[in-house]
């Protein structure tokens, strides 16, 4: 699963999505083992590695149930960064299943952890995702604030180009929502 994770958003995405689909029974078995043996970290790692395949290929209800079962396990000895990554992955699964309140809850929890460990990349990712969530809920002011904060961190640290691109695209959408197609186009092109 962890070998596939970086490939699920790259140029070989279809091939790796197909591989994950073929391996889904093995992933289920591994997660069931993690839950039954109280090994939250192993389950977290599988969810983080496979959330993109779940977003694209389905199994959202089952995945949301797995996330809730994993969250009930003891995990205080797990590295906070791993917990935050799990929460972000879980939020993406919840979002794909149109569970917006759960998505917001998971992202806020992840962002609090990222703030606590001063992980600015994680903070910027959460800002971007919260921006898209707020925009989807029609709150363009909150969305704009999230996108601007995420973009500021991404540019200042020169981190993961996808975060800056996502924030710029989101700001372009906000501009379009507000009836400013020139600004929207400029921001979308920059993204």
Q: Would you write up a description of this structure?
A:
This protein is an all-alpha fold. The chain has ten helices and no strands. It has helices at residues 13-22, 24-36, 40-57, 60-71, 80-96, 100-116, 120-136, 140-157, 161-177, 181-190. α8 packs antiparallel against α9 (161-177). The radius of gyration is 17 Å and the shape is globular. It starts with 12 loop residues before the first helix and ends with a helix.
Topology of helices and strands:
Blueprint: H1 13-22, H2 24-36, H3 40-57, H4 60-71, H5 80-96, H6 100-116, H7 120-136, H8 140-157, H9 161-177, H10 181-190
Helix pairs in contact: 2-3, 3-4, 3-5, 4-5, 5-6, 6-7, 7-8, 7-9, 8-9, 9-10
Mean pLDDT across all residues, rounded? 92
- In helices, the fraction of residues equals over 70%
| Amino- and carboxy-terminal Cα gap | 30 Å
Count of DSSP-assigned helices: 10
* Biggest sheet overview: none
Tell me the Rg in angstroms: 17 Å
Q: What is the structural class?
A: mainly alpha
The 3D shape can be described as: globular
**In percent, how much strand structure appears in the residues?**
under 5%
Secondary-structure element order, N to C: HHHHHHHHHH
In the predicted model, the low-confidence regions spanning at least 5 consecutive residues are none
- The tally of strands reads 0
